Amino acid sequence: QVTVRDALNQALDEELERDERVFLLGEEVAQYDGAYKISRGLWKKYGDKRIIDTPISEMGFTGIAVGAAMAGLRPVCEFMTFNFSMQAIDQVINSAAKTCYMSAGSISVPIVFRGPNGASAGVAAQHSQCFAAWYGHCPGLKVVSPWSSEDAKGLLKASIRDDNPVVMLENELLYGVPFELSEEAQSKDFVVPIGKAKIERQGTHVTLVSHSRPVGHCLEAAAVLAKEGVECEVINLRSIRPMDIEAIEASVVKTNHLVTVEGGWPQFGVGAEICARIMEGPAFNYLDAPAVRVTGADVPMPYAKILEDNCIPQVKDIIFAVKKTLNI
Amino acid sequence: ASRVMVASRNYADFANEATFEIKKCDLHRLEEGPSTTAVLTREEGLHYYKTMQTIRRMELKSDQLYKQKIIRGFCHLYDGQEACCVGLEVAIKPTDHVITAYRAHGFTYARGVPVRTILAELTGRKGGCVKGKGGSMHMYTKNFYGGNGIVGAQVPLGAGIALACKYFGKNEICLTLYGDGAANQGQIFETYNMAALWKLPCVFICENNRYGMGTSVERAAASTDYYKRGDFIPGLRAISVYQVDGMDVLSVREAAKFATEYCRAGKGPILMELQTYRYHGHSMSDPGISYRTREEIQEVRSKSDPITLLKDRMINNNLASIEELKEIDVAVRKEIEEAAQFATTDPEPPLEELGHHIYFNEPPFEVRGPNQWIKYKSVS
Q1: Which of A101, A113, A249, A273 to mutate to test binding with chain B, by most B CBs within 10 Å of its CB?
Q2: d(CA A294, CA A315)
Q3: Do the domain assignments include residue B8?
Q4: Residue A103 and residue B153: Cβ atoms within 8 Å?
């Protein structure tokens, strides 16, 4: 049993050891051991050259990280939360994502941007936004969103080894959650391929597609629904871009019903994209009901617990959506 | 048979080199500055002359092609500023790194990309520097990172390249250029801070051509002492009443030699301001006379043109003859004409390449076109 935090820590440690071009920079990553302790112990082990504390200058240090990647290093650039990445978003999109294309492949940008994304607990509107749709929108980027420890470790390792800019959207509430880590996943060469979803639970009546923390909620909902004889197939997207639409299609062909679940806002979100693509593909003809989306409420995140709780998709919301689409 | 000598000038008639006085620099947090004399060999002089002239004519040809609508979009020309990119290039090594903003054609050439490849990129052909994918603002080559469209964004990138230089320990440095307009961007100050904190081998260079688009330096900056804006970062600026010295290739070279030596010695970043001038407007859509006078442009052209300055120095010090330089002019014109010929006849990139190079080192995948039935293949 390994927590997501420890899985990420292991991944960083292993990749830092494996390739000396890899280094980590961000606020508080070194001497503070990381704002969320993801990089605990790394500065002690690797020193100032590989683990760099930055001043509070997102646009500046993100640009520096991207430039370092262009010149042959393999930076891991941590945003304390992705909300702060908005300060630096020009560097992520215009300098990192687009450069390989603009240079016809002569300049590569092997960088990983990582940090917690989406809602936390009681941190209010400016610290709770989900950026999956924003970054997932842009060609040139890869965007991953882990749920379990295996996802976290495997995707971080894969992202660091990828020669392209990868945005890794973690979740603060998952950091302390323990998951089983298989023998295979404990190996130093274990990577989770970017662009492939994982079926967390087989089912026949409805397809639930989700990413990050809501995957856990889907599994809880599935457990409750199973008692009522409804078997949900739960798909953990793992990657937002490229998105494994084929996995979703194959599942919908089997179950004939689709519910997407995400923490982000509904308009122009991940679920909206899935629905559009399902309409365009072979699975459309297998739907027995319109696809349904479960999302964060369309409002900036409030602070009071009762309000906040009702702004994120809960297990009951997922169950309700499933029953609606199955008409039960 | 006897040969009739009509006119002859023996190369032994020329001086091998000459020494020139150059203006002393304004210094900020520096005890001493670059040398106030510069030695120019005949060979160097001819090389600088030819390079600057090539850039000049290439830019003028681009102007022509733009007006014929063969070049589209944005086109920011460098004519007038040639002494900067040439003076810088000759002071550094091919293994050093350079990054600049969008007024980049001169640097692209100085860093080794042939004229025909630059022009073909401007005209959007497959023989272009980046196969027509980038255009005027996005040309790259080895150790040259463009060509950047977002004002100021190249500055942190340059410091990042410098970080890599320090990390790899191969004694390389990065020249990070920006204009007087960009000098007010916040991320530049964030970069100054980190570069100084971490002692990055980064030479920050402000090409001050007096106008950020249509806004003069006095109207944009509370302090126009750009070489001091790095505060805790030492800086230098060629003193100039008529803003000559960013127009003097030897001045630029000596200042650059000084600055790069400082960086290579591990002393940290340094900031250099080059006062220069662009004859064209900000871009091809700017006639360049609504915010400055024709007289001003004329005055700089007649008194401080970088190519004329070098030419006069060489002639007056017997480093070359007028005929010789004229021959170079002819050769340059020919090269530019041929390059333009190529750039206007080379085919556009094939449509099949539309999706290529989205990623690096990636197995081929499908890219969506304007509708779900149009698909392109992406190969990297």
Answers
A1: A101
A2: 10
A3: no
A4: no
User: Using one digit for the tens of pLDDT, what is the confidence trace for B18-29?
Assistant: 999 988 899 999
Active site residue: A28, A127, A137, A220, which one? A127
Closest CA to B233 of B195, B275, B176, B186: B195
Please choose, from the candidates A82, A110, A178, the residue with its C-alpha nearest in 3D space to the C-alpha of residue B160. A110
Query: Does residue A242 have a cis bond before it (omega within 30 degrees)?
Result: yes
Chain A CB contacts of B141 under 8 Å are 106
Q: Which helix (H) or strand (E) holds A123?
A: none
- Under DSSP, the state recorded for A273 is H
Token output for A208: 């639930």
Statement: the pTM of the whole predicted model exceeds 0.80: yes
Cβ A171 vs Cβ A117: under 8 Å: yes
- Residues in chain B with CB shorter than 8 Å from the CB of A280 are 372
- Sorted by sequence, the CB contacts under 8 Å of residue A164 that are 6+ apart come out as A100, A108, A109, A110, A140, A141, A142, B359, B360, B361, B362
Catalytic residue among A14, A15, A27, A58: A58
Residues B308 and B371 in one domain: no
**Using an 8 Å Cβ cutoff, are A214 and A261 in contact?**
yes
| The total number of structural domains that make up chain B | 2
Phi, psi of A164 (to 5 degrees): -120, 165
Q: Which structural domain range is residue B275 located in?
A: 17-349
Lookup result for tokens 């970043």: B269
**Residue among A68, A106, A110 whose CB faces B163 most closely:** A68
* Nearest chain A residue (CA) to B192: A60
Has A14 been annotated as catalytic? Answer: no
- Residue in B277, B345, B271, B286 with CA at minimum distance from that of residue B309: B277
Contact list, A95 vs chain B (CB under 8 Å): 148, 150, 153, 157
Report which residue type is found at B106: G
Kindly report the CATH number assigned to the domain that includes residue B153: 3.40.50.970
* Chain A with chain B: Cβ pairs closer than 8 A: 146
For the segment A185-225, what is each residue's pLDDT rounded down to a tens digit?
A: 999 999 999 999 999 999 999 999 999 999 999 999 999 99
What number is the ipTM of this complex?
A: 0.95
Note the pLDDT of residue B245: 60
Q: Residues B155, B59: one domain?
A: yes
Beta bridge partners of B315: none
Could you confirm whether A15 is annotated as catalytic? no
Q: Are residues B296 and B367 in the same domain?
A: no
Residue B231 parent element (H or E): none
Query: Are residues B263 and B202 part of one domain?
Result: yes
Alpha carbons B16 and B18: distance in angstroms, whole number:
7
